[in-house]
Design goal:
InterPro entries: Pirin (IPR012093), Pirin_N_dom (IPR003829), Quercetinase_C (IPR041602), RmlC-like_jellyroll (IPR014710), RmlC_Cupin_sf (IPR011051)
Cofactor: Fe cation
GO molecular function: metal ion binding
Number of strands: 22
CATH topology: Jelly Rolls
Largest sheet: 7 strands, mixed
Family: Belongs to the pirin family.
Number of helices: 0
Protein name: Pirin family protein
Shape: globular
Structural class: mainly beta
CATH architecture: Sandwich
Length: about 240
């Protein structure tokens, strides 16, 4: 098993006043040639958006975009006619495909909104754009990992155009879990939203991450009051 540690304080940081963003990978004005992507995982932004502020209408194409709210309420509107609000316990998935335009705004005039925005490079280009919003909290079980993203439309959670699986877990008590890699050659990016976890000899704290490759499975020793996101993705970029 090969591992790469990305500590929380090693991420790219930008403060735009209304937006405070931490970038796990090169994004916008932050560029690190050693942190461009983890396989097909291209973006993992940890965003804080001030009350009443947000991202104006802007375009995307040929990217799978997953938004996971951590607090507050995020308002969405896009060129496909979708609009509404998402909050913690829900996820939003967009296949940008041939092209979409969308906006994301903090729905509160008093409270900030925090979220993870994740981009995955798809295995198919030029697909028909699609939007999905799912309340994942209905099927969540305390102290277990819940699948929230897969390649299969008929599987648990939502789906994207890539051989990728996301699992999210809230652990109120100390737990030991083994993660089995779903597809040979895939890697797993472990991101600690809160709390801490030990993998091998590595201890990760809040917003730390660990890239894991060249293994079929690995063990996690999870501390109490921890929220952990597992992102399994192909390590080879698609030849399209």
């Amino acid at each position: 098993m090969k591992t790469t540690v990305h500590t929380a304080d090693s991420r790219g940081f930008q403060n735009h006043g209304w937006l405070v963003a931490n970038h796990s990978f090169s994004f916008a004005n932050y560029y690190n040639p050693e942190r461009v992507h983890f396989g097909v995982l291209r973006v993992l932004n940890d965003d804080f958006v001030s009350a009443g502020m947000g991202f104006g209408t802007h375009p995307h194409s040929n990217m799978e975009i997953i938004t996971i709210p951590l607090s507050g309420e995020l308002h969405h509107k896009d060129s496909m006619g979708n609009f509404g609000a998402i909050k913690k316990g829900e996820i939003q998935v967009m296949s940008a495909g041939t092209g979409i335009q969308h906006s994301e705004f903090n729905g509160s005039k008093e409270q900030p909104v925090t979220l993870l925005q994740i981009w995955v490079i798809p295995n198919k280009m030029g697909v028909e754009p699609r939007y999905d919003q799912l309340k994942i909290s209905d099927n969540a079980i305390d102290n277990e990992f819940q699948q929230i993203i897969s390649p299969n439309p008929n599987d648990e959670g939502s789906w994207i155009h890539q051989d990728a699986w996301f699992h999210l877990g809230n652990f109120t008590e100390k737990s030991s879990r083994t993660y089995q890699v779903k597809k040979e050659g895939n890697g797993v990016y472990v991101f600690v939203i809160s709390g801490s976890v030990k993998i091998g000899e590595t201890i990760l704290g809040q917003r730390d991450a660990l890239g894991i490759t060249e293994t079929e499975h690995f063990d996690l020793e999870i501390d109490n009051d921890s929220e952990i996101l597992l992102i399994e993705v192909p390590m080879n970029l698609p030849k399209i």
